[in-house]
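Recap slide: Uroporphyrinogen-III synthase, sequence and predicted structure.
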Amino acid sequence: MLSGLRLWVTRPSQQAAGLIGLLHAAGADAISLPLLEIAPPADPAPLRTALANIGQFDLAVFISPSALDAVFEQLQQPWPAGLAVAVVGPGSEKRARELGIQDVICPALQFDSEGLLQEPRMQVLQGKKLVLFRGNGGRELLPNALQERGALLTLITAYQRQPPCFDLARLTMELATGCNGIVISSSEAAQHLFHLAGGEARQALQSRLYFVPHPRIAETLNALGAKQIVLTDAGDSGILRGICQHFTNPRQESK
């Protein structure tokens, strides 16, 4: 279905294998070109303390699959059987279940902080002890809303996001080799890509086709000058489906 197409997958290397495998199975030449690198937190002490006392919490919130991986790499005991986990999207839900977590709260339709906050079990939080695992920085909407609902919230930086390791020379080479589409899974990754490029490389990036799983990423790319942006569903299968639909029906309107 995607035979002859060369696509960039720009997720962190730890998260790219599933989507790359699906793209390869569909016939594409999928290239891993991570725009974010995942590293341990600058100060690991708060994470260790939270994990040592994980059974004291009423709910654990994970902002991404990277947060789940970072926590379970450090966890020295089984995950408490009665401790539910809340996540913002299907990628995190899939990873949580792979890690053996049984009780997972995930939005049914809107895969972001706003969608998670609409879930029935996220409404009555007064006096409940919550721990939120995330990367460095990021939006404050979710933690602020949880605290406004009365949650006793502990914020933990479980990992840090860093700029990509490759340089402009590698980017220029990849652009020259050819690219039929670029998958971008976060606004921060889009910003790293265009910050890395300059002059002709930036112009080349602005003319490329992008596949993104959230409108916020599309808005970021649009502000950076990208002109061809296709909005897909979330998760590996949703992104694959959007790519296949676009190339099956090339007149499909980009968003």
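The mean pLDDT is 92.
The domain at 39-161 is CATH 3.40.50.10090 (Rossmann fold).
(End of recap.)
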